[in-house]
Design a protein that fits this description.
The complex is a heterodimer of chains A (about 600) and B (about 300). Helices cover about 20% and strands about 35% of the residues of chain A. Chain A has about 600 residues and is an alpha/beta fold. In chain A, the strands form eight sheets. An eight-stranded mixed beta sheet of chain A has the order 17-16-18-19-25-24-23-21. In chain A, strands 6-5-4-7-8 form a five-stranded mixed beta sheet, with helices on both faces. In chain A, strands 26-32-31-28-29 form a five-stranded mixed beta sheet, with no helix packed on it. In chain B, helix 6 links the parallel strand 7 and strand 8. In chain B, strands 6-5-4-7-8-11 form a six-stranded mixed beta sheet, sandwiched between helices. A three-stranded antiparallel beta sheet of chain B has the order 1-3-2. In chain B, strands 9-10 form a two-stranded antiparallel sheet. Classes of the chains: A alpha/beta (about 600), B alpha/beta (about 300).
């Protein structure tokens, strides 16, 4: 049995109070009678001499205690798990993460889970909703017949990305079928958080897995250097062969020794351009994370810097792989060709659709008001979730003067007394405003500066070349209405611009994605997500209140309404008995008695 | 005969009744009632063997001629009966709806009327803790008016508790003429009824007890926690009246009745128990006749 509000059980303390009240004698009223003689002949227990009387077997007291107990239990909202009824609605949540591709369960975890889900659907007769627990949880169907649900289940495939199972479960729990709460059954290989009233079916046996978790390419004085990270998630040491190839030409082949639960980074010198592909060949259960990719030397991002020249800034953009052009005044033709326009301390200008970085300036096209300046602001907070602020630590940065910005939307990425870094996208614009210019702070001398520039460049232009599976990919439309997305597996999707950008909600496959926009192509590499490397199946120990979740083919039934009805019935019975007790006894005799 | 107590039709019916006692009522005075005593009456009753000293005039010679044995004829003796009406006027009798005292007065009037109609001597007394008023024994039809006036002007209830023992001690010493002693009371005496009734029997009265109770004494109407106050003694009793308590009361009440009935049976005392819900006419004309108290 589970309790929705166990704190209400504290009200059970009212039971001894009821007994005490029953023992207490009320203030008596005087009743004059002809004689107490007959009363004195009654049993002694009729009398009441003490303020407290002994608790006797009283049906009324028992009923009062029963009614109070039932009411308190109803307030605690108890529930029991009962075998699933055939007609109850069911939400089937199936995990399509990369981990489900593991083959430790034949043919794979996903196929085993799908077969079990199909069997579960076949057992019931009620409507079924299928929820796909991927990087972006979604309902594959509404509440449909079991046959339609099985068809929808058959259409699912496991992705190369991690899943957001908790969000999918939350989504499932929010569903209602015919006004009632449906049964929720989750099929996955790993559950980190158990939800009450949810049934979990966990598949998987092995935790042995070695994966490529990242492929980064950094420019070096002698060319480019790729860093391949290989992680051993197993509990034993592994020795795996590694090969690295550039556009199909092998440039490295070696064996990597991996201690348990350790990551090893292998540097690879790269000369030339193309797609770098790193591959390991372990003998583990999951092969989807055995390859990593990087795009080297693709068409550089064109950055136009307007306003005051700042060589530090230009150098930072060049170091991030951008092709930097400098101009004094805004030029419409140059701005149209640039992937990113940097406005450094320029007067406020109107901004046509595009990508902009504004330093110590603003624009009337942005929902941002500037009210003077703030001297020596302190950096108090910075965003931890926005991609621009990833790995950016601004705690020791000193700023001499910044604009007093008052945004009316967008997202503040760093702020002190006033917002310091602010990002906005909408109306065909993707913009970031720094309230200060580089000479007004020591940001340029901090390690955070090149990271911030790199992240800003990637976010503003959508030109990041390395992504993790499951991440969204957002590319500014720059006036284009459509784009074509080519996936690693050769699939082709036409994307429509929405809000001035093309959005791929989740990159679900590992490999090279190509986005064709207006005659230009952007290529990105998608690598396995480090979060999905550990394929250990299981779930946390069941809490006492959630034991019912482990019972197969059961669903929770609330007992509160039944207990309330019981309470009312008991009170009714008690009332009836009380009235009967008040009813006078029949006279001993209505006829005279004669003895002679 | 104008009376506030009964209507003429009821009185007409009463005139046809007479009192019956369980033993001979020897007053020594010839009266209208045919006594169970065999003696000098006119009506033949029985034979018995001749004994020395018997009056020769009562020898049945015809039997002697047939059986050659001497038998004397016996005749019923007509004699009058003294009827003492003792009416309890204690505070507990001024209780109930209708009041027990009013009911008792009607019973006393009816019995007195029956007795006077049969030329018996009738006296009456009202008592509480002691004798309060007394109507001497008289034998005349006109005595009925005095009896009714006496019953209609009873003294108020005494302030102290009633006591049958004290009253009987006083009455038996004051009254020398024995006879039928009709005690009309609720018998709820704090000091008990046994000694008083036994004293009456000791002084050779023939007690006839009419116990009058009200319905709420048979079946109490009080419920819940209450403090019962005795209207005579002022004694209080804290009770919690619920179904078990009422059951206990019923058992105690029935035990009291059983004890009372057993006592009366043991001491050859006629006993009748009634409640004020029984009409007096039914009690007199039906139940007392069925019980053999009236004929």
């Amino acid at each position: 049995m589970t309790f929705g509000a166990p704190a209400a059980l504290w009200f059970l303390a009212v039971l001894p109070v009821i007994v005490l009240l029953h023992m207490l004698r009320t203030r008596r009223h005087d009743v004059r009678i002809s004689s107490v003689l007959l009363w004195q002949r009654a049993r002694e227990d009729v009398y009441a001499h003490a303020p407290l009387r002994r608790v006797q077997r009283s049906l009324l007291l028992l009923l009062q205690l029963l009614a109070a107990s039932a009411l308190v239990l109803a307030l605690a909202r108890p529930g029991v798990m009962v075998p699933s009824g055939g007609g109850q609605a069911t939400v089937v949540v199936i995990d399509v993460s990369v981990r489900m591709q593991a083959t430790d369960v034949a043919p794979s975890r996903f196929e085993a889970a799908r077969a079990e889900a199909a069997a579960e659907i076949a057992r019931g007769r009620g409507p079924v909703m299928v929820v796909r627990a991927g990087p972006q949880p979604s309902a594959v169907t509404g509440f449909v017949s079991p046959a339609a649900a099985r068809d929808a289940l058959a259409s699912l495939v496991a992705t190369d990305a991690p899943s957001q199972l908790e969000r999918a479960v939350t989504f499932a729990l929010g569903q209602r079928a015919d006004g009632g709460r449906p049964r929720v059954v989750v099929f996955s290989d790993h559950v980190s958080t158990l939800s009450p009233s949810v049934e979990y079916r966990v598949v998987g046996q092995s935790n042995r897995n070695v994966a490529i978790t990242a492929v980064r390419v950094e420019p070096t004085p002698g060319g480019m250097e790729a860093i391949v990270q290989v992680h051993n998630a197993s509990k034993s040491a592994e020795r795996v062969p590694l090969t690295v190839a550039l556009d199909g030409v092998q440039i490295l082949s070696r064996t990597v020794d991996l201690p348990p639960a350790m990551t090893v980074a292998i540097p690879v010198s790269v000369r030339g351009r193309g797609v770098l592909r790193a591959r390991i060949n372990p003998h583990d259960a999951l092969s989807a994370d055995d390859a990593g990719y990087a795009v080297i030397g693709d068409s550089p991002v064109r950055v136009l810097v307007l306003g005051e020249r700042d060589r530090t800034l230009e150098t930072a953009f060049q170091a991030a792989g951008a092709d930097v052009t400098v101009a004094r005044a805004p030029d419409a033709a140059l701005m149209a060709q640039a992937d990113l326009v940097v406005l450094n301390r320029t007067p406020a200008v109107n901004l046509p659709p595009g990508n902009y970085l504004l330093l110590a300036t603003t624009s009337p096209d942005l929902p941002l008001a500037v009210d003077g300046a703030v001297v020596s602001p302190h950096i108090l907070r910075s965003s931890g979730s926005h991609p621009v602020m990833r790995f950016v630590d601004l705690r020791d940065v000193v700023i001499g003067r910044t604009l007093a910005m008052h945004p009316r939307g967008g997202e503040t990425l760093a702020e002190g007394e006033v917002p310091l870094i602010w990002a906005y996208q909408g109306a065909g614009l993707r913009a970031m405003v720094w309230g200060f210019a580089l000479p007004e702070s020591d940001l340029a001398v901090h390690p955070a500066f090149p990271i911030l520039v790199h992240n800003a460049l990637s976010w503003l232009t959508g030109s990041g070349s390395v992504y993790e599976a499951g991440q969204p990919w957002i590319v500014p439309a720059r006036g284009q209405a459509q784009a074509v997305l080519l996936g690693p597996d050769g699939t082709r999707h036409v994307l429509a611009a929405r809000g001035g950008q093309f959005v791929v909600p989740a990159l679900e496959r590992v490999g090279i994605y190509t986005l064709q926009v207006g005659g230009r192509s952007h290529r990105i590499a998608v690598n396995p997500a480090p979060a999905a490397v550990d394929i250990t199946p299981g779930r946390p120990p069941l809490p006492a209140s959630s034991v019912a979740t482990a019972v197969a083919s059961q669903h929770g039934v609330g007992l509160a309404p039944a207990l309330l009805i019981v309470t009312l019935l008991v009170l009714l019975v008690e009332w009836t008995l009380w009235l009967r007790r008040l009813a006078p006894l029949g006279p001993a005799t209505s006829r005279p008695v004669i003895r002679r | 005969m104008p009376t506030p107590l009964f209507d003429p039709a009821f009185l007409k019916k009463l005139e046809t009744l007479s009192l019956r006692s369980r033993r001979p009522l020897r007053t020594g005075v010839r009266g209208e009632r045919r006594s169970r005593t065999l003696g000098r009456g006119m009506e033949f009753a029985d034979y018995r063997s001749y004994q020395s000293g018997d009056d020769y005039r009562h020898i049945d010679w015809s039997i002697y001629s047939r059986l050659d044995r001497l038998f004397v004829r016996l005749f019923s003796e007509d004699e009058e009966v003294n009827v003492h009406l003792l009416l309890d006027t204690s505070p507990s009798m001024v209780w109930g709806a209708p009041r027990k005292l009013d009911y008792a007065v009607q019973i006393a009037a009816a019995i007195g009327y029956v007795a006077l109609a049969n030329w018996d001597r009738v006296g009456a007394a009202a008592f509480g803790s002691r004798l309060q008023s007394l109507l001497p024994l008289q034998r005349s039809r006109s005595h009925i008016f005095r009896l009714f006036r006496f019953l209609g002007a009873l003294p108020g209830p005494p302030q102290d508790a009633s006591s049958l023992r004290q009253v009987m001690r006083e009455y038996t010493h004051r009254t020398k003429r024995r006879g039928l002693l009709v005690i009309i009371s609720d018998l709820l005496y704090p000091d008990g009824y046994e000694e008083g009734l036994a004293l009456a029997r000791y002084h050779r009265f023939d007690p006839f007890v009419v116990q009058v109770l009200s319905e709420d004494e048979i079946t109490p109407t009080v419920r819940g926690d209450a403090r019962l106050v005795d209207c005579e003694t002022g004694q209080t009793l804290d009770v919690s009246v619920d179904a078990p308590a009422l059951e206990a009361y019923t058992q105690g009440r029935d035990a009291y009745f059983r004890d009372l009935e057993a006592f009366c049976l043991r001491h050859e005392i006629d006993y009748i128990r009634t409640t004020t819900s029984i009409p007096v006419e039914d009690l007199i004309l039906r139940y007392m006749r069925l019980g053999g108290l009236l004929q």
